[in-house]
Amino acid sequence: MMVKLVQERSRWWIASTVDRRIAGLLVDGAISVVQELGTEEPEPRRDFETSAPA
Questions:
Q1: Model's pTM, two decimal places?
Q2: Are 7 and 13 in contact (CB under 8 A)?
Q3: With contact defined as beta carbons under 8 Å apart, do 48 and 32 qualify?
Q4: Dihedral sign for Cα atoms in the order 39, 42, 43, 47
Q5: DSSP code of residue 40
Q6: Residue 47: how many CA atoms within 13 Å on its side-chain side?
Q7: Contact partners, residue 39, CB within 8 Å, separation at least 6
Q8: What is the tens place of the pLDDT at every residue in 4-20?
């Protein structure tokens, strides 16, 4: 989905297999972070709040 969006909005970018893999890893990583922050466990959330700039 992310690769398709970039392809539609950027005329110069041509997706390669490596680009698709990198985009997939970035999206998976972002989703993982969001899921961790949404858990009931306070430790990941506390660590994020103390390390993120205000």
A1: 0.50
A2: yes
A3: no
A4: positive
A5: S
A6: 7
A7: 45
A8: 777 777 777 666 777 77
